[in-house]
C-alpha cells in the first residue's frame, strides 16, 4: 500500500474526505458506516472542515470515530478565512475539536486566503501548535506565489502540507506547484481526486483507456483514477464517499501500481500541462 509522510507521521496515501457529508438525516447511518469501512480497510486520514455543512461534517466524523483508537487516526480539519485571526482562530479551533470529539487535530489547515494578514494567521496556527491542540499546521488552495510568500514569513517554513484540487481532468498543479513542493519536501494533498465522478464533463470513468486499465487490474475506473493521483509518492488523496463499499474500494486503490505503459496511455488521453495554469478551486 502506497504511503506518504506528513511531518514525522507516515499514513496510507489514500484517506477519507467528508465534504457534503453529514447534511441529511436519511444518509447519516450510511455515511458513518462508510467512514468506518474506510478505516477498517486501512485508511488513517479523515479530512473535514468547519465549512462543511457549517459543522455537520465535523459532527458526523465525531460520531463515526467513537470507539476507535484515536492514536491510529490522522484527522485533518480546516479554519475558515474569516476565522483565521489571532482572536477568532482559537475559538473556531475549540469549537471544531468539540464537534469532532478529540483533544487535538493531527493537521489543521488555513482553508483559503482571506482578509486576515497571512502573517497573523501563521502566528495563530503556531500558537495552537504550541498549546498542543494541533500537531501540525498547513494551508489549502495555495498556489506557488502564495507558498513563496508563506515561506518568507516568520515561522512559515513550519508548513506541513498544502491541499489543492487535483485529478486527471485538472492537472495544472503538475507544471509548477507540485514540483515546487516536492523539492521542499512539502506534501501535496489532493481534494476531489476523482473529479466528483464526471461532474467536470471530462467523462473520466467512461474513458476507454481508463476502463481498459481498470480491467487489467480487476479494479474500478475510480480506483485507477486514485492510483494515478498518488503515483509519484508525494500526494495524499482524500476521496469522499458515503457508500461503505465504495469507501473501501477507494482505500484499496492504494495497492494498485500502474505500469509505465499504462501511465503513458493515460498521458496520451489526458496530456500533462505544458504551461502555467490558473489554480483550480472548488
Automatic annotation (TrEMBL):
Q: Name one Pfam family in it.
A: Aldo_ket_red
Q: Which CDD domains match?
A: AKR_YeaE (cd19138)
Identify the domain of life: Bacteria
UniProt-annotated catalytic positions? 52 (proton donor)
Q: What positions belong to coiled-coil segments?
A: none
Q: Which InterPro entries match?
A: AKR (IPR020471), NAD(P)_OxRdtase_dom_sf (IPR036812), NADP_OxRdtase_dom (IPR023210)
Task: Note the site residues: Lowers pKa of active site Tyr.
Answer: 78
Q: Where is the NADP-dependent oxidoreductase domain?
A: 13-268
Q: Where does substrate bind?
A: 111
Please provide, alphabetically and separated by semicolons, the GO molecular function terms listed in this UniProt record.
oxidoreductase activity
Task: Extract the SUPFAM superfamilies matched here.
Answer: NAD(P)-linked oxidoreductase
- State the protein's name: NADP-dependent oxidoreductase domain-containing protein
Look up and give the organism this protein is from. Answer: Lentilactobacillus curieae
